[in-house]
Structures are given as structure tokens and as C-alpha cells.
Amino acid sequence: MGTACKQVIADVLAETAPKDKDLLVLCSDSRGSGSIGPFYDKFPAQAIEVGIAEQNLVSISAGLASCGKHPYAISPASFLSTRSIEQIKVDVCYSKTNVKLIGISGGVSYGALGMSHHACQDIAMVSCIPNIRVYIPSDQYLTRFMMEKLVKDQEAAYVRVSRNATEDVYTPETKFEFDKAVLVKDGTDATIIAVGEFVSRAKKAAEILAEKNISVRVLDMYCIKPIDKEAVIKAAQETGHIVTVEEHSIIGGLGSMVSTITAENAPCKVKVLGLPDAELICGTQEEIFEHEGLTPEGIASEVEKLIGK
Amino acid sequence: MNAKQLKDKANTLRIHVLDAIYQAGTGHIGGDFSVIDILTCLYNGVMNVSPETVDDPDRDRFVLSKGHSVEAFYAVLADRGFFPMEDFLGTFSKLGSKFIGHPNNELPGIEMNTGSLGHGLPVGVGMALAAKLDKKDYRVYVVLGDGELAEGSVWEAFQAGAHFGLDNLIAVVDRNMLQISGNTEDVMASGNVADKLRVYGWDVVDVQDGNDPAQLLKAFEHCKERAGKPHAIVAHTIKGCGVSFIQNQAGWHHHVPNKEQYEKAMQELKGLVK
Predict the structure, then answer these.
(1) Contact A29/A52 with Cβ under 8 angstroms?
(2) Which domains does chain B have, with CATH numbers?
């Protein structure tokens, strides 16, 4: 097992804080969940607690950013992306403030806590607002690469990570390009485009299919917005079949975006996998995935169905 | 500028606001006329900001949380030279104009975009906090409407302002007792705002006539002198102040005058400017 992406975010922020005195971390009684408690202990002058007030969290961050600060608002993705959506829209996006929103415990990380704590709408909610980027990194190495870029730039971004440790997909030597999909594995018969938790599962699905002589390309679309349109079109043209997988409602997320790109540029068969438009069953994150058929085997089976084998 | 000169200026700017709204066929005249004396005071002596210092890190910050009163805001900024008055009057609300019907921070002198209520004070808390962290002396002024006090996010910010001890933050409540649907106390009672804010830990000044620059200047001066707590000025204003048939009428929240009303209002306002 790898490392939790939220831990890597906390590490990069702690490494950057001494060099960037304007860097601030803000939490809404969410330090523990964000693994950011040690940052508060080490850099008290760069750490702010706003209490359980997510709307205020985002607006205060925007006010700080408008005065030259570099705020990182860390809060559970469920609350940050929906309770504070208007603050994101008006105070961050419309006013163009450099606020980095870190949604922790994304998707169904809080599995058994129910729909109030699930963040399965955040990609749809945040992505359709102008002036903000959206990222869902898949492992510790990609998270570090992404964070090291974000701490240097001056534009708003929403980053969603899971609560648990995420299996390594890459190695310390892997070379990434910012805002470009990562080619995890090349293939010719179909492409699985995945984000976050599902990249490692997509890779395993491709391995299962390889044993059946089905050659599958796997793309990690960690940059949900700006999405790597070119990589999607290339996948459609070269492999003719695309399966998308995400820890998000099948409405309005990665699958919707990929479908629009293929429909407009390179029509091909697309299957959107994700969480259904329904209340989810009570269980752990892993159990919910299994219940919804979102296992390497389940994904592989959907690829087979799509290509007609 | 003394109180008399400020009042004359505010009344002159009311004429520009009336022109802008009449020509554009849109606007929020009631709130504009309610708040314009407050804005005139802020930008003509109270705040440390000018067209030359719009990017100065030490400038005072201002957020118009009741963003619908933007016509008054544009008129006051234009008068102070942040942009030409004719640009505002000539293009307000027209296709492609930067003079949108709520504050647009692509215009010089406007810090933040507002429009949806309940955003300005939380943003102001962030700005005031930034000043404290940077050990800078600038102040942050936020003007809120009284109907806006029904938004819960406002109270998150009142709580945070006191918690962080932001004595560089001044919230002005334009307490005109009216909102789009009627009297604030009928729609959602705010009651004694000053008492509520004192309980929240704010230093509060109740200004009996919030359309009187003399009383407003005194209140702003008080805020500059007191340390330790954030400041709230509850300015008891008259919505639509300055025109007999517009003032204290909820219907004039965003009513646009017809030709006859425009001429009558213009005549009354010109009579106020000596």
C-alpha cells in the first residue's frame, strides 16, 4: 500500500511554508481529517482555524488572497464543494482570488457515514465554474508533482483526495507533465480513462485483459480541468473504445466530460463507470466499490462488453 | 471636506445615480440613496485610498457587501477619479460594459465582486486578518444591508471578527428597515442590531441619522480611536433618501422611474444641491 495523498499535501505545504511566508493553511475544525495537525504545531503563524464554518472558510481565504496571501483551505470535500459552492463561485472564481481548495475525504471515503458525508458531486459542481482548475491525483508521487506546481502558481484550484492511503501507481522516477494525462499503460483495443482511486484499479483491469490478449491503454486524467482533450481524442481515434471510471456520480463528472469531447471530435463507443444517481449502500469505501462493480474485474468486464468480446 | 460639503457632494452624486438608472432602465435606486452618504464619507476623508494608491499594499480596503447599491458606488468612485464619470453614465449595464449591475473588480478601486448577499463581511474578515498577519495598519470597511443580516454567513463572520480581535475591521450596516418584499421586521426581523452585535463581541456605534455626514464622520473617528474589538456602525438610514416619493417605499428597491418621475426626482435633488 502507498501513502495517503492528503499526507503528501501536508508534507509539501510544510516544506514550502518556511520559503513562502505568505502561505497559509486554513481549516474548519478539520485538522485531524486533513493530517495537517503537525503543520499547525510547527507553523502557528501560518495556520488559521475558522471553526465549523465552511462558507466563512472559503470567503476568509478569498479575502486573505486578495491581500497577497497564499491560502490553502482544507476541509472535507463534501462540505467544501457543496456547502461553500457559492463562496467558491463568487469570492474565489468571480473575484479571481488565488485560493487553493483542498477537499479531503473525497468520494465515498467516509463510506458508512452516509450521503451527507459523501462527495460524489464535487467534480460537477466545481468544474462548471469558470476561473478554477480541478485535480484528482491518483497516488503519492503524482500528488507531490501536482502540489509542487500549485504552490508556485497564482490561480485558484480545487484538489480532491481520498481519506485512505492510495496504492502507488507510479515510482519516484516517473516523469509527469502538468495538465497532461499520464499514460499509465499503452494499448490499442480500448482505453480506460480513470482518476484518483480508480487509476490503480484500471491498471489492474488492463493487466487482467492483457491475459486475454486484449490490449488496453490506461490514462490517468488527474487534471479534470483543464482536461487533456488531446489525449482523449487520440484515445478515441487510436483505440475506438473508451471506458471512464471515477469515484463520482455518473452525472457531470469525468465520464460526462470525456463523452462530450468524443461526441464532438471523434465519436466512439464510451461507457461511463462511477457511482449511480442514487443513495449509496452503507459500507466502507471498498465495500461500496465492490457493490457497484467497481473492481478491477468489474472494470475489465465492462471493457470486454464495450468492445464486443 | 466638512459635513456640509460631503452632504452636497452626496446629493450631487444622487443626480448622477438617477441619470444612470433612468438611462439604463435598471438599478437599485432605494438602496443607492440610502447608502450614498456613507460611501461619500468613506471615499472623501475616512478611508486611505485614492486612484493613485489602488495597488498600494497599505491602502484601506472596501467591500460593498450590498452589491446591488453599485450605482452609488460607481458614482462615488467616478467622482473621486477612479474612472471617468461619463464611462459609468454612458455604458452602465449596456452590452459589453465593465459597469455591471453589481461591483466588478476589473474596474480600478473595486477590490471584490459581490452581488449575492452575505459574502462581503467574511471576505472582509480575511482582509483584516491579512493586515494583522502582515503587521500593517490598513483598515477594512464593509457595508452591509440590513435585509442581508438574514444570511447566516454574515453571522459566521461576526463571530470570526470578534474571535480574531480584528479592530481594523469596520462593518457598516445600512439600517434602512426595508428590503425588496417590505419592512425588514416583517420579512425576517433583525430587531436591535446594535445589541446583537455587542453580544457578538463587537464595539458598536448606533448612528441615529445615517444620512448625516456629521454623525457618520464622528462614528468613523470613534472606530479609528478604539482598539481591541472589531467595529460595527449601525447607520439608521432612509431608503431612497433625498426624493420625497421614493424614500421609505419598499417598492422603490429596484423600481426604475418613468419620464415624469425622473423629472420630478431631478427637480427635488437639484433643489437639495445649494
Answers:
(1) yes
(2) 3-272 (3.40.50.970)
Among the partner residues B130, B152, B156, nearest to A69 by beta-carbon distance: B130
Chain A touched by B148 (CB under 8 Å): no
Give me the interface pTM, i.e. the ipTM.
0.97
Q: Looking at the complex, does the CB of residue B112 fall below 8 Å from at least one CB of chain A?
A: yes
What is the rounded distance in angstroms from the CA atom of residue B31 to the CA atom of residue A117?
40
B18 confidence band (pLDDT: 50, 70, 90): very high
pLDDT digit string, tens, across residues A135-147: 999 999 999 999 9
Measured CA distances, B150 to A122, B62, B267 (Å):
27, 22, 36
Question: Angle at Cα A293 formed by Cα A292 and Cα A299, nearest 5°?
Answer: 135
Interval A147-172 mean pLDDT: 96
Question: Which residue in chain A is spatially nearest to B56 when comparing CA positions?
Answer: A67
Q: Which residue of A has its CA nearest to B111?
A: A66
Residue B48 sits at φ, ψ, to 5 deg, of: -95, 75
pLDDT digits (tens, 9 = 90+) for B115-160: 999 999 999 999 999 999 999 999 999 999 999 999 999 999 999 9
Q: What global pTM score does this model have? A: 0.97
Place of cell 486554513: A26
Q: Which of A57, A70, A91 to mutate to test the interface with B (most CBs of B within 10 A)?
A: A91
Nearest CA-CA distance, residue B223 and chain A, Å: 21
